[in-house]
Amino acid sequence: MSNILGVMTGSSKDGMDLSLCAFKGMDPLTWKVLQHWSVAYDEEVISALQVGPQDTLYTILKKQDAFTKWMAKVILHLDNKYSMDVISLHGHTVTHLPQEGFTFQMGSGASLYALTEIPVVSDFRQQDVSLGGQGTPMAPLADLVLFKDHDLFLNLGGIANVSIRQDQDIIGYDIAPCNQVFDHFALTLGAPYDREGKWASEGFLNESLLMFIQEQEYFKLSHPKSLDNNFIKDNFIPKLSNIEPSPKNVLHTYAHFLTRLIAKEFKNTLAVKKKVLVSGGGIRNTFFKNLLEHALKVEGLSISIPADDIIEFKESILMALLAYYRLNNRDNLLASVTGASRNSMGGALYGSVNI
Fold first, then answer.
1. Where does the chain show beta strands of DSSP type E?
2. Which of 29, 74, 136, 295 is most deeply packed, by most CB within 10 A?
3. Residue 4 and residue 23 in contact, taking contact as beta carbons nearer than 8 Å
4. 3-state SS, residue 344
């Protein structure tokens, strides 16, 4: 079996998730999770990930170097019981503009290999973008291959995205900002996140804000589509604050918007299995979860909540799978998801691997 460490740095800048997974074969594929870790960012790392218009190429590369060295140090000091054959690195998205032909995730695969002496696969998105695709989401591959008992998938991370199985194919796309919005307004109230949605439950629905959100152009686009973190941070979130000064009311209103949007995305699906597999930290928000259950019930759907390790670590498991496919010369970015001209094998390999 091949032991691959999947490394996912989320868009909400709270920390790094790592999953060491063992894979064997392809047709059929057998796999299991060996260990998980979640490592919070310290202030120095958070500072390195803050990239803005004032940064030059020099300062961005300096920040990437600091971030990569931090990742290498963490990986080398993991309390790991198993051998580690490969590291699969997503990196922290600095900019994602597929319509302009580029995307950039901070974190150097070459440097990480040099520092750890463990082969690294990184830079998964750019080839797909160059083929006219969105370069994301990548999660549908895991949904298609690893979770065959479901046809409908929802990930509630910094960005909410969906996957819908269609026969032997699958589509998937980003539908809206998620925890990036909830966590931003929770921070204004003094906490990194809204525990169980308590503050959201205390807010009121602002109909003007709800209407404004619904009218945003992105939510009217058909798939394939994907969201850029900079758009969310610099454009979308500030507009919410300008319309509604109460963070609790924003949290309450946005929860209503997002659950209604999710239900709409799954409406009239031809999927035989009517349960939606939900992963990501957003499902820990009890207020949001209750709204979601009600919205999906109207469409004849229900939610399926997996084991805790899948909720928290599905994206880092995905990264391990993406590298395994790449190392077996199998396509890991799907044109049916990204809109590229063809499927492709994303990922640059640093070091040599016998698999």
1. 2-9, 15-24, 30-40, 86-89, 92-97, 102-106, 120-122, 152-156, 159-166, 169-177, 275-279, 302-304, 348-350
2. 136
3. yes
4. strand
Report the C-alpha gap between 291 and 219 in whole angstroms: 19
Angstrom distance (rounded) from CA 353 to CA 5:
14
- Which CATH number fits the domain that encloses residue 55? 3.30.420.40
Q: How many domains is the chain built from?
A: 2
| pLDDT single digits (tens) 94-127 | 999 999 999 999 999 999 999 999 999 999 999 9
Tokens of 196: 């169980």
Nearest Cα residue to 248 out of 284, 298, 193, 204: 204
Terminal-residue alpha carbon distance, the chain: 8
Tell me the three state secondary structure of residue 177.
strand
Is residue 170 located within the same domain as residue 247?
yes
CA pair distance 151, 124, nearest whole angstrom: 25
Q: How confident is the model at residue 268, as a pLDDT? A: 75
Mean pLDDT of 326-350: 95
Asked whether residue 355 is assigned to any structural domain, the reply reads no
Per-residue model confidence as pLDDT tens digits over 180-228: 999 999 999 999 999 999 999 999 999 999 999 999 999 999 999 999 8
Residues 177 and 287 in one domain: yes
Q: The whole model's pTM is what?
A: 0.88
